[in-house]
Design brief:
Blueprint lengths: L6 H17 L14 H6 L12 H15 L6 H17 L10 H18 L4 H7 L1
Helix pairs in contact: 1-4, 4-5
């Protein structure tokens, strides 16, 4: 990135951080090289096959929370949709060409939208809550 700080450089770093959290992989892992990067690794599975690259500990945590909140056995579609959206933000922020990266304002807007979907997901209908207790 050249040593100088810039908004575009910060966005790139943020995108890579998101992808690291989702996959539990680092850009320097042996998996990457010969044209494959953390960015391309994540981009190639979106949106249909995100579960293939998700950190298994993250999946376990999500499944446990889903069972506790809703009694579901598997990751629900809304949660997976939010993870896909979050990963898309990471991919859009880590595009190689700086002017093609997602803008800060758009990142914030998208993250707020994801958060709103997650909060809506966690609102349990009173009948479902009574069934779980």
């Amino acid at each position: 990135m050249g040593g100088l700080t810039s908004r575009e450089g910060d966005i790139y770093s943020y995108g890579i951080l998101i992808l690291e959290m989702i996959t539990r992989k680092r850009p320097t892992d042996d998996l990457f090289g010969d044209g494959m990067s953390l960015h391309s690794y994540c981009k190639m599975v979106l949106p249909e096959n995100l579960e293939e690259i998700l950190d298994f500990r993250l999946l376990e945590q999500i499944n446990r929370k889903s069972q506790k909140i809703r009694g579901d056995q598997n990751i629900d579609c809304n949660m997976l949709d939010c993870l896909v959206s979050f990963t898309k933000v990471g991919v859009a922020c880590s595009v190689e060409v700086p002017v093609q990266r997602m803008k800060v304002e758009d990142v914030v807007t998208e993250l707020h939208a994801i958060k709103a979907r997650l909060h809506a997901r966690n609102q349990i209908d009173p009948q479902q809550k009574a069934k779980n207790n």
